[in-house]
Design goal:
seven-stranded mixed beta sheet, alpha/beta
Length: 519
């Protein structure tokens, strides 16, 4: 078994920021995301393990780890202790033959490099990324030094895992791990990876942005869907025939839109689930987001119409769109730190704006463009073509449908965003705005409980206590009793969806555990 470990426990003392440098964003993605995406694209990697401070950093990593089946373990107080934790964890849980160790702040690695190192480990005990010394080399006592006798040693590093596990000492003063291996070990120095940039200081962010932009602008559009692995797997599972035809059109449609919208720089978000998303820069619009939605998932029309119809006071701005290509161009907003802590006044004010805007009457004709929440919920009563915990889940679906039908009438329905969790709430200047709407015709309270349920799903702790705190908090902008009812209904709604939108049942089990805690 081939495993890659990412060491992500550093606090970045030299970086001078409250946010560890591996979680800073470059072109809209965390530095560590580039590392993770690269390793996920490696054909010879069987497992990824990230070692980090779980309590402090799970807010950055929980979602991406869940999406890519990555194990997140506790780091140590030093780099060597962190690596020791990795070795012990792998030794206890996996039958590992080869291990590659990567740094979370070296984002220019490639999937081909990972595959190359695993190949080299077939004939060697260790592989080290090495660099020739091109500057003059000095000694503190001014003794003459021949730089040709020396080289730099960097991560990634690859190891025969049993040999490493036997000889590694976390208390060793040696900073290079291969120096702890037996003297007769076969160590391969790999000098052919030259652009091994390491993020160390704040000024490095601009340089890294330029490197990433230059690399990511070199895109083969005929193969772009393959790089968005999560979306690609979803489409091939549920829409195999449609996706084959659609992927062929991208080679022509993407360059056409880049030219039309005067986009000069772009990089693709490889972790996207429901579309191909580029973080881009346009001569006409400046920094923007360019999104192409597969026609087969029946989302484009409602999403585009939401940007046009929902109140602009809480929505990201739609710059342009192309119905033929199912593409939209949006303003690019900044991330907002909206993990709930009970003291976020701006969050409460944002949802007050959302609730007040829902009082605006939307024409019945417009409703035909959007998804009817009540109809979808009631249709789930007949969607029982699955086996996993079927009786339990369908029992919840029946309860949810009955509760919804007895609580709400058609007069309670309005056009809502429909997916207002914290990952879809961004910052434009000093105000919060929403992105990625689904567009439901539904009770307006669904937008609030989408946020509440996501917080319950993503955070640990006492679920029953957390739900009471969240309901108390949002009762300032909506009726608490209604929120409590629609929270149960919408969690069941998302529970049923999870059976068909994911490759395993981890999220399904998480929703079930939440329901058991709140019912």
């Amino acid at each position: 078994m081939n495993i890659v470990a990412i060491l992500a426990n550093g606090v970045g003392a030299r970086f001078g920021s409250n946010i560890p440098k591996q979680f800073h964003k470059v072109n809209g993605k965390m530095v560590i995301e580039y590392v993770i995406e690269t390793i996920c694209d490696s054909s010879k990697t069987d497992k990824i393990v990230i070692a980090t401070n779980i309590e402090a950093n799970s807010v950055y990593l929980a979602d991406i780890c869940a999406q890519n089946d990555i194990d997140m373990i506790e780091g140590g107080s030093t780099r060597n202790q962190t690596l020791k934790n990795v070795i012990d964890y792998i030794d206890e849980n996996y039958l590992c033959e080869n291990l590659i160790v990567c740094d979370a702040v070296r984002p220019m690695i490639t999937s081909q490099l990972m595959d190359k190192y695993f190949d080299l480990l077939d004939d060697n005990d260790a592989v080290v990324t090495a660099q020739k010394i091109t500057d003059s080399l000095g000694c503190y006592d001014f003794t003459k030094v021949d730089r040709e006798r020396y080289y730099l040693m960097q991560s990634p590093e690859g190891f025969n895992f049993p040999l490493l596990a036997e000889h590694f000492d976390e208390n060793s003063p040696l900073t290079e791990v291969t120096q702890q291996l037996p003297e007769d070990s076969r160590i391969y120095l790999y000098f052919d990876f030259n652009n091994n940039f390491k993020l160390t200081y704040p000024a490095d962010l601009k340089y890294l942005e330029a490197l990433v932009t230059a690399r990511d602008n070199d895109v083969d559009f005929s193969k772009i869907l393959e790089s968005v692995s999560r979306l690609n797997r979803l489409l091939k599972t549920y829409y195999p025939h449609e996706v084959e035809n659609w992927s062929k059109t991208l080679e022509n449609s993407i360059p056409k839109l880049l030219k039309e919208w005067q986009i000069t720089e772009y990089n693709v978000i490889k972790s996207s689930h429901f579309g191909i998303i580029f973080l881009a820069k346009s001569v006409k619009y400046g920094k923007c987001v360019f999104k192409i939605i597969p026609p087969c998932i029946d989302r484009y029309t409602s999403e585009r119409s939401c940007y046009q119809s929902l109140n602009a006071s809480f929505m990201c701005e739609l710059y342009d769109y192309d119905d033929k290509c199912c593409a939209i161009l949006l303003e690019r907003c900044k991330d907002a730190d909206l993990q709930f802590d009970g003291s976020k006044e701006e969050l409460l004010n944002f949802f007050k704006r959302v609730m007040d805007s829902c009082e605006i009457t939307v024409s019945k004709d417009l409703f035909s463009q959007f998804k009817n929440y009540k109809e979808i919920l009631n249709d789930k009563l007949n969607q029982d073509n699955f086996e996993y915990k079927k009786d339990e889940i369908m029992g919840y679906v029946k309860q949810a449908a009955e509760l919804f039908n007895s609580t709400f009438s058609d007069d309670d329905f309005t056009l809502i965003h429909g997916d207002m969790h914290r990952y879809n709430i961004m910052k434009r200047n000093d105000e919060l705005v929403a992105i990625d709407p689904i567009g439901y015709v539904a009770p307006k309270e669904v937008d609030i409980v989408r946020y509440i349920a996501t917080e319950l799903c993503d955070n640990g702790g006492d679920i029953a206590q957390n739900v009471q705190e969240l309901l108390d908090f949002f009762s300032a902008v909506s009726d608490r009793d209604i929120l409590e009812k629609i929270l149960f209904i919408d969690i069941v709604f998302r529970l049923h969806n999870s059976l068909f939108e994911n490759e395993d049942y981890k999220l399904t089990d998480r929703w079930l555990s939440i329901l058991k805690a709140i019912v």
